[in-house]
Structures are given as structure tokens and as C-alpha cells.
Design brief:
The complex is a heterodimer. Chain A is mainly beta. Chain A has a single domain, classed as Immunoglobulin-like (Sandwich). Chain A contains one helix and nine strands; from the N terminus they run H-E-E-E-E-E-E-E-E-E. Chain A has a five-stranded antiparallel sheet, with no helix packed on it. Chain A has a four-stranded antiparallel sheet with strand order 5-4-8-9, with no helix packed on it. About 10% of the residues of chain A have low confidence. By secondary structure, chain B is mainly alpha-helical. About 5% of the residues of chain B have low confidence. Classes of the chains: A mainly beta, B mainly alpha.
């Protein structure tokens, strides 16, 4: 390999390493959990960390069949936040937008009270609806 | 020397431990959330809100009884500046008697939703309702346009700002009275409204929303901030642990209770001392019977359907934050019996309290939260925020002393009385 070809290959490698991951990949600090019956795996990242009190924020979900499994596309999803201790949830619904490769943008969270909330991700596949949950502390 | 150093170190450690044990570490963050009151938020749905001419017109109209059908009632009749912009009555009472307490207009510009049930999503949309309410001002939007058309000062002031009025002289197109009456298609006003052309209805709605936007421009001036509590927090933020003496010892105890054991900030959070949302607090009804007021359940549906909501034709920003909020709004029965959390700033003069004026003063309010005596039950709603606080008499007094420190600086006197001048709008 000529010197210039080696230089080009090195530069391209460095550039590739420097580029951010594809937008469809979850960041390393996304939280992850299996659904309660183990039927799907979900990663979650809010647009604001930590999620704010009584201010709107968005979030992203990545769904796959299992850890390192196939992305789940065209999912029938329901997403909500509840406050179990108060027995109420958000006063508004979220918009869910599929972005491909198992990634879903969720817009319009508003947790209006401080305390422990639960993010509920319900995935319906055929006759079965399964839930995955994340604890969210709003301070 | 070595012994002296050890003793000095020991003293420092002891003092440090004492200070740690006697400091309230939750207080600073709670304080920062409650103060200061920021500048009023912008309202992109009302492009006139910062226009001085609109403020001036709205100021005139707020005090002008010509906005009511029999020329007897103005906005200021119920929102009396001498009574903290309320009427001092348990239930609103003008042309008829309402079912809810007149809320204050002070600082209402900070609201996310308007009315006790949030059936309006902007300050200007709020202003469209009382004018046409048969037990408030009893007017209708077409009659109001006729009145603006025939009264020179009203017509001139409107046209200087917004342009020409609809062609009200064409009485075949514009009947004497017409408006859409909610859930009453057989009402004569509904029928007259339905008989008008779509273009004429839109022209009237444009006029009506402009009037409301000028009222909102004036009401946006009615803010009171910089309360003793804010000055206390500012001093604390500057490192003065005593808060420069802006709060008495009793008020400080009340503050600690407010953000601590009382958990009042669960709902009365943020710099307005309100989460701006809705709760069912099981407040006793006036007659002791089970509650019948649907509150937010009905309000949420109304705001979604309103022609004057922020996503509607008369909004100046139809795709913005406010419009998304309305689109995402839940309208299910969980909202039944919920009412908006009122701001606790500037409480003086706003008694009686709660959405139907159920409590005559702050002691009665705190007694309810202390005991939950007479709680009306949860009905459809299952929210379980409330627990009896079991306040002692001293704690009740401390909380009242604290709440008294939330009185902001007085309004500029020019906003609390009709505009000076020749007595004609805009002159």
C-alpha cells in the first residue's frame, strides 16, 4: 500500500470513528428493561435528564425482540406516565412517531407533580398486550 | 501548639456537625423553585398582547358597561380592582347567580388554562366567554358588533387598531342578536347564527376575538411580584441565611411546613405557587350533598371544541405549544370533579376560597386540609394526594403568616381604575 493510500485509509478510519452513531441507535446511557413477560426489550432516553417537573419533555424508545434482538417495527404502542402513589397519571396524551429500525419518538410528556412516576410502555402484538415499565423520579 | 491545633480542629468538627444537623437541606432547592416570579410568558396566539394601543383599548373595555346587554355590568363589576380583582362573593352574581366563585385576574397571565375548569386555553379565549354568558354580561357577539358600529368612540377605537368593522349596517346579513349557544341549537340566538353566511360569521368572530385580545392585552398588565417572600429568597441566595429579616420567625416556620411536612408544594409548586393543572381535593360542597360539578371533565371537552382555542382560525399561532397542549389533552372521566390549582400569591382580598367559595378564610381552608372534615368523597376520580395534616393551632398560624408574605408589590394605580380622559374610549 502506498504512503498516500495508507494516509487516506487512516483518515477515513479516524473520520468514521469520530462520526456519531446512526441516529437510530440508542445512546449508551439509555435505560433498558425487558417487558414483564419477557416478550420484548425496550430502551428509553428522555430528551431532558433528569425529566423536569411540570415542563414538557420528549423521549425516545428503542424496541427489539430481546437484548440484541431484531428491532420491532410498525409496533402498536401505547405510552403513558402514571403516579401510582397518587393514583393518577398525566393530564395529556403523548404523540408517538415511528422513526424506523425499532426507534420511536414520544412527544409531549408532562409530569405535573413531584414524586415517583412510572413510564408504561404497552406493546400489542396480535391478541397480546405486554407492558414494560421504567421508574421516573420527578424532583 | 499541637494541643491547640487539635482542640481547634475538634471545635471546627463539632460546629460543622451542629450546623449540618440544624440546617434544612431541602429548603434551598424548594426556595429556588418558588421564587422569583419570572416575567409573564409570551402569548404568540395573541399578536396584539404587547401592543400599547391594544392594552389601552382593553383597559377601556374592561371598565366599560357597554359590553353587557343592559349596560349595567363591566368586567370590573365582578373583577373589582379594590377586591383583588374578584367580587368577594362565594358564587359569582351579576345578571344571574353562577355556580362557581369569581377567580382573580391578578397574575392570571401565568396560567396554562383559564377558568376553574380550564375551558379556555388562552387569556383572550377566556375573555370571549363572560360577555356572552347569560348570567354574567348577557351580550351576544353580533349585538356587540352592532353596538361598536353605532357608538362612535367604540367604533373609532376599534377601527384605529384592527381595521374596519363588519358591515353591520346591512341588517339583512347581521341580525340584532346571534351567537352559537352551546348544546342549544333551538335557542333563537343559535338559529339566527346558523342563518348567517359562513363569511359573515367569520367576520363577526374575527371582530369578537379582536375585542377579547385587547382585553387580554390589558389583563396581561395585572401582575404583582416582588413579595416579601421573594426578597427573603433573594437574600438567602446572596448568602444571608436570615433572609435579611424579610420573613418573621413564624413565617419561616410556616415556610418550612409548607415545603416540608405539609407537602403543600405537591400542587402549589413553581413560582406561581400552582402547578397550573387540576385536582380533585374533595372540598366539601356548599350544600353538603355529593358534588355535581363536573369541573375539568367538562372543561377539557369544551376547550377542545372551542372555535377560539389556540389551534383555531382566530389564533395567531395555530401550530404552537398551546395548540399541541389542547390537541394532547385527555378528556376522559378521570377529570371529573377536578378544579384548577389556584395561585397562592396575592391571596389577600380573594376570600372566600375554593372554586365555590366554600371556605370563608384561610383558617377554614387550613382546617379542612388539617382534618379533611366534610370531605366530599372522590366520586369518579381516584386521586389520593390528600392526607390529613393534623396541624396544631400554632402551625396553622405559622402557615398563615407565611402565606401573608406572598403579597406582591401593589399594581401601578393606573391599572386599578378606569382610564382617565374624556370618558370616551381611546380619547
Amino acid at each position: 500500500m502506498s504512503r498516500s493510500a495508507r494516509w487516506l485509509a487512516t483518515t477515513l478510519t479516524l473520520l468514521l470513528c469520530a462520526c456519531p452513531k446512526s441516529d437510530s441507535s440508542p445512546p449508551s446511557d439509555a435505560r433498558a428493561t425487558l417487558s414483564q413477560a419477557g416478550g420484548f426489550y425496550v430502551r428509553w432516553k428522555p430528551s431532558i435528564e433528569p425529566p423536569p417537573l411540570n415542563k414538557a419533555f420528549d423521549g425516545t424508545l428503542w424496541l427489539s425482540t430481546r437484548v440484541e434482538g431484531e428491532p420491532i417495527e410498525l409496533a402498536q404502542l401505547d405510552v403513558d406516565c402514571r403516579m401510582p402513589a397518587h393514583r393518577h397519571g398525566m393530564l395529556q396524551e403523548v404523540d408517538i412517531i415511528e422513526e424506523g429500525a425499532g426507534r420511536y419518538s414520544v412527544r409531549g410528556f408532562l409530569c405535573h407533580m413531584a414524586g415517583n412516576w412510572v413510564l408504561q410502555v404497552d406493546l400489542t402484538q396480535g391478541a397480546i398486550t405486554e407492558r414494560a415499565q421504567f421508574d421516573i423520579l420527578i424532583e | 501548639m499541637k494541643t491547640f491545633s487539635r482542640v481547634a480542629l475538634l471545635v471546627l468538627v463539632v460546629v460543622g456537625i451542629w450546623k449540618f444537623a440544624h440546617s434544612n437541606h431541602s429548603l434551598p432547592i424548594e426556595l429556588a423553585r418558588l421564587s422569583p416570579l419570572p416575567p409573564a410568558p409570551p402569548d404568540p396566539t395573541n399578536r396584539w398582547v404587547d401592543d400599547e394601543r391594544a392594552v389601552r383599548l382593553g383597559h377601556w373595555l374592561f371598565f366599560d358597561t357597554r359590553l353587557s346587554i343592559d349596560r349595567s355590568v363591566s368586567c370590573a363589576t365582578c373583577h373589582d380592582p379594590q377586591r383583588a380583582f374578584t367580587d368577594g362573593k362565594p358564587l359569582a352574581e351579576t345578571l344571574g347567580r353562577g355556580t362557581r366563585k369569581t377567580p382573580t385576574v391578578l397574575n392570571t397571565v401565568y396560567s396554562r388554562w383559564f377558568f376553574w375548569d380550564g375551558r379556555a386555553d388562552t387569556l383572550w379565549a377566556q375573555a370571549t366567554e363572560p360577555i356572552e354568558n347569560s348570567i354574567e354580561m348577557g351580550m351576544d357577539r353580533v349585538a356587540l358588533a352592532h353596538r361598536f358600529h353605532v357608538e362612535d368612540d367604540l367604533r373609532g377605537a376599534y377601527q384605529d387598531l384592527f381595521g374596519a368593522l363588519p358591515e353591520m349596517s346591512q341588517t339583512s346579513r347581521f341580525p340584532p342578536h346571534a351567537r352559537p349557544v352551546l348544546n342549544e341549537p333551538e335557542h333563537p340566538h343559535s338559529q339566527a347564527w346558523a342563518a348567517m353566511s359562513a363569511e359573515d360569521r367569520e367576520a363577526i368572530n374575527r371582530f369578537y376575538s379582536n375585542v377579547a385580545k385587547s382585553l387580554a392585552a390589558y389583563e396581561s398588565q395585572l401582575t404583582r411580584a416582588s413579595a416579601p417572600f421573594d426578597r427573603y429568597v433573594a437574600a438567602r441566595a446572596a448568602g444571608d441565611e436570615q433572609g435579611a429579616g424579610h420573613l418573621s420567625d413564624a413565617a419561616v416556620r410556616g415556610l418550612n411546613l409548607f415545603v416540608g411536612r405539609g407537602r403543600c408544594t405537591s400542587c402549589h409548586s413553581g413560582p406561581t405557587f400552582s402547578d397550573l393543572e387540576f385536582h380533585n381535593n374533595q372540598v366539601p360542597t356548599r350544600d353538603g350533598l355529593p358534588p355535581t360539578d363536573p369541573g375539568r371533565f367538562q372543561g377539557a371537552r369544551q376547550v377542545r371544541e372551542s372555535a377560539f382555542n389556540s389551534s383555531g382560525k382566530f389564533s395567531d399561532e395555530r401550530q404552537g405549544v398551546a395548540a399541541a397542549r389542547v390537541r394532547r389533552l385527555r378528556t376522559d372521566s378521570a377529570g371529573w370533579g377536578e378544579f384548577k390549582t389556584p395561585s397562592l400569591r396575592n391571596l389577600r382580598g380573594r376570600e372566600p376560597y375554593f372554586h365555590a367559595g366554600q371556605m370563608s378564610d384561610l383558617r377554614a381552608v387550613l382546617k379542612f386540609y388539617s382534618t379533611l372534615e366534610g370531605a366530599s368523597g372522590q366520586s369518579h376520580h381516584q386521586e389520593s394526594v390528600l392526607k390529613p395534616l393534623n396541624l396544631s393551632q400554632g402551625e396553622t398560624e405559622d402557615l398563615i403568616r407565611f402565606l401573608e408574605t406572598l403579597e406582591g408589590l401593589p399594581l401601578d394605580p393606573r391599572w386599578t381604575q378606569p382610564p382617565s380622559g374624556s370618558g370616551q374610549v381611546g380619547k
